[in-house]
Structures are given as C-alpha cells and as structure tokens.
Amino acid sequence: MENFQRLSRPEQADRIWRALFIDHSPISENCRGVLTVLKTFGLDVKAGGLADYRHFFDSLTLEEHLDVVLQTARVKYLVMTNDPFEPTENLLWQTGLALDGRFRTALRLDKLFNDYPGTAVVLQKGGYQVNRDFSSSASTAELHRFLTNWIKLMNPLYLAVSLPPDFCYPDESLQGRIIDKVILPLCRESGRPLALMIGVKRGVNPKLGLAGDGVSAGSVTAVEHLCAAHSGNRFFVTMLSRENQHELCVAARKFSNLMPFGCWWFLNTKAMIQEITALRTELLGLSYIPQHSDARILDQLIYKWAHSREAITRVLQAKYQDLAATGWIPTEAEIRRDYEALFVNNFERFCGLSSD
Questions:
Q1: Higher pLDDT, 135 or 328
Q2: pTM for the model
Q3: Which domains are assigned to the chain?
Q4: Residue 252, SS3?
C-alpha cells in the first residue's frame, strides 16, 4: 500500500484499471458505474487502457462536463456538502461566491460534532469566545452566533452530520449538549431539518485513508428519542447498516417529523436498493425519499441515478401490479404524481420549500 501511495495519480489509475478491468471482469457495482459513465459519454468501454479516456475528458471544458453530467443524470439541482470548518472552503465563502443555480447548499457539521475541541480552536481564531469543553453559556451563545452567520451566508436547505454507530440520545456528553443547546434550537428557529447519517466507522483501516471507513449498526432508539423529545424539529435520517432499515421504517410510521432517505454509501448497490425500496414502500407507502446519490465525484451522478432508477422502477412496477390485482388500476396521472412525490416533492416539502 505504501508503494502504491507513492505513485502519481495517473500511475495509480493505470494500476487500478488493470487490476479491476483487465485482469478481472468488472462486475462490481463500482466498476459497472465507471463503465456506465464511459458509455454515456460515447466512449468504447473496452478500449484496453486509459489514454483515450484521458484525451476525451481533457478536451471538455468544466462547463461542458457539468452540463452533460447533470442533463444525463436528469438532475435539476444537487445539494452540496458545505463545511465552514474546512479552511479552503471557508475562504471561498468569505470572499464571495457566484453560485450556479443548479448547486444548493447543506451546512455540514461533522467536525463540530466529532471533534469539538479541535473545532473550538478554529472558532477562537475566528474571534468567537468559546471554550474547548463547551462548559460556558458564552460558548453556547457564540456557537449559535457562528452557525447563524453561516446560515445567512450559505442559505442551506438543511443542516447535516454523519455519525458513528454508537451515537445515542439523550446524552450528557459534549456532543449531546451541543445538539440540545445549539443545533436543535437553531434548526427550529431557522425552519430547517437536521439530516442524520448514522453508522459509519471511521478509519477501520487507516492505511487506506479516506477509503478506510467501515460500517456497523446504529441505534434507531436514539432517533426515536430525538423525534419524541423534539416534535418541533424535522429529521432526515439514513442509516448505513442493512440491519437498521426495518426498525427505521417502523419508527417513521410513528413520527411524522422523521423522513427516511436514500441508500447511503455501502447500501448503494442494486440488491440493497431494491430490498430497501420494497421494504419502505410496503411499510410507508410513498412517504419516504428513495435515493440520494451521495456522489463524491461529479460523474458518479450519472451512474448512481441511472442504476438507482432502474432498481427503484422494478420495485414500483411490482407494487403497481400488486395494486392492480386488487382491482385498483393506477392511471398514468396517478403514477406520475407518485413519481413526483418520491423524487421531488417529499424532499422539497420536508425542507419547507413547498407547502403542497
């Protein structure tokens, strides 16, 4: 691994291509995704090497590349992960950004939740009077002020955080106090949901860097406690472990302020998408959000949405056939209405963008 990491990016790519696409058939979901993207751009998926692909993508401007990806993925707009604690991004926002309307924002809180002492140092350097153990009323007020300023600057659709499997609530820890004293009140005041992505085990294999994270089952009980204790808040929730999906659906039947969404990360495979979509449909009807692309790379939008729609469509076809067998024959207008709910309206309504 150390030898691989010393290679240049092109050299790494060549080795990966040979190992996954030449020496073995590329039948994994990730490999199929790469081939779907190449096919979409009209490229020969069995060219044998990366030279032709590099030449093609080098010939595209950023705007051309972006247009093709969004049009092909049939994405009207996408929601970014915007981290005010990331120095480069922070600087860009502070100096002013002219945003493309196809990019919306989400205020990401991972560093705040998972490394508050380190984050407190950043806040102190920015002139905010917080202490590192979040023990003072001044820290509460100053953190509230910081996030309020960033909400005004970014205008995010929601606030979001990815959490480890051992996340619990209620909790007297530093993390629990930040949630209760700052995050939940701020979400209520601003009318924004809080998106919780639960179940990631960071650094299972540190040698792999960002690729070294794993998965474990989280606590749906913590989600239930949040929803019960804070009925004035809205919670998007996705969980990384397959084992959590049934329990999360049952919880969503009990709490109108809970919206399950997406098949996240390791669940973003054909088999899991079909299983989870069927489960959600049978337990929740159309009251969920079937997918979010969770794309770290722009081109992933193409294959993740194409593959997801294929899997989701198969489930919905079977459900409409079950419905027709009862004598209720769905019309085209009804199916279009349901599609709009699943892929557009449920999300926008839960974010407060629509009152329909």
A1: 328
A2: 0.94
A3: 1-59 (1.10.2020.10), 79-261 (3.20.20.140), 272-356 (no CATH)
A4: helix
